[in-house]
Amino acid sequence: MSFPITEPPRLSRATVRRDEQLRLDTAWQASTWPKARVLVVDEKGRSPVEPGGSTGSVALTKAGPEVSAELPVSAVLIGEQDDVPYWAVRGQPSLLDGDDPSQWQDLRMCGAALDATSAGLMVSAVAVLNWHDNAGFCARCGARTEVRQAGWLRVCTGCGREEYPRTDPAIICLVHDGGTGGSARVLLARQPMWPPGRFSVLAGFVEAGESLEACVAREIQEEVGVTVTDIRYLASQAWPFPRSIMIGFEAVADPSQPLSPADGEIAEAFWLTRDELRRALVDAADATRDWATEPGDGRLLVPPSISIARTMLDSWSAVQD
Question: What CATH number should be reported for the domain whose range is 168-317?
Answer without folding.
Answer: 3.90.79.10
